[in-house]
């Protein structure tokens, strides 16, 4: 005996399943386009937080934003006490390259001192809040000495080296007077690089910069009066300035790179800290 209702029922269910699958694909497609905002101008947001240990991730993000035609301007949000000299200089140089192609607006957060200030110099314009802590223009080179501790636990070390200064900064002995003089000279050279960068980028006479480049910190208001920043304002003021300089009225904010998980950041910071402790390295960092 034929059961047409069963055939019709199965056909209806099959059709409903196909329709739901099609609807799911359609919604996903629409959500994809909504998320991308194709055709809508974008502003790239680069967040630099914490101690600047390595520049690689930031450099890749800056390059990505520089070549992306949809990104009309870049806002760099800095909340950092500084970091290693090399990393700070690398980010600064890459921002300088990018500002030739599109506006780069820097927004200083709570702290943008030492290496954080160095990075900020790469922007087209710099914003700071009145109470932002910046400045701390100087170099720190700290060398631990565990010689006495090792002697207490009965450990002795011997060093075979190829040159007079090859083991300068060894944690197993104090510095000799000649080594201290040698390292002081290097610190001065690196400090001069910082002073020169400020003078050139902020159009402040070199001797004027030397007067306040002694490691002291400044508030955002003081930095404005010294010519270290262009305007007082928050992150959204910087975004508005970016839109204005890019000649756009609306823009989608694109955060590059994407935020990492707490565990990833923790593991990265801990491993970096251990590695940094093993090598002699000068820092553009505030210790105030």
From TrEMBL:
GO molecular function: ATP-dependent peptidase activity; serine-type endopeptidase activity
One Pfam family recorded for the sequence: Peptidase_S49
Signal peptide coordinates: none
Annotated keywords: Hydrolase, Membrane, Protease, Serine protease, Transmembrane, Transmembrane helix
Residues annotated as transmembrane: 6-33
PANTHER family linked: PEPTIDASE S49 (PTHR42987), SIGNAL PEPTIDE PEPTIDASE SPPA-RELATED (PTHR42987:SF7)
Family recorded in the similarity comment: Belongs to the peptidase S49 family.
Protein name per its UniProtKB record: Signal peptide peptidase SppA
Species per Swiss-Prot/TrEMBL record: Thermodesulfobacterium geofontis
Underlying gene: sppA
């Amino acid at each position: 005996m034929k059961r047409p209702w069963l055939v019709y029922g199965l056909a209806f269910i099959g059709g409903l399943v196909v329709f739901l699958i099609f609807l799911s694909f359609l919604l996903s497609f629409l959500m994809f386009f909504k998320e991308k905002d194709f055709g809508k101008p974008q502003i790239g947001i680069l967040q630099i937080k914490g101690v600047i240990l390595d520049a690689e991730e930031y450099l890749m993000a800056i390059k990505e934003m520089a070549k992306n035609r949809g990104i009309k301007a870049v806002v760099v949000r800095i909340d950092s006490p500084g970091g290693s000299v090399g990393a700070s200089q690398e980010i600064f140089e890459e921002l300088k390259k990018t500002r030739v192609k599109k506006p780069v607006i820097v927004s200083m957060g709570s702290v943008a001192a030492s290496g954080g200030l160095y990075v900020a110099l790469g922007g087209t314009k710099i914003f700071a809040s009145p109470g932002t802590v910046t400045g701390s223009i100087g170099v720190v080179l700290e060398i631990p000495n565990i010689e006495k501790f090792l002697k207490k636990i009965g450990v002795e070390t011997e060093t075979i080296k190829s040159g007079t200064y090859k083991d300068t900064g060894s944690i197993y002995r104090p510095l000799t007077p000649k080594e201290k003089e040698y390292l002081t000279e290097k610190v001065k050279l690196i400090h001069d690089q910082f002073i020169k960068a400020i003078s050139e980028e902020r159009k402040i006479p070199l001797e004027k910069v030397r007067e306040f480049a002694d490691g002291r910190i400044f508030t955002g208001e003081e930095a404005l009066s010294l010519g270290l920043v262009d305007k007082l304002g928050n992150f959204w003021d910087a975004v508005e300035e970016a839109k204005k300089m890019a000649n756009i009225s609306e823009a989608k904010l694109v955060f590059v790179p994407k935020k990492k998980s707490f565990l990833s950041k923790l593991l990265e910071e801990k491993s970096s800290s251990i590695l940094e402790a093993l090598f002699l390295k000068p820092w553009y960092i505030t210790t105030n």
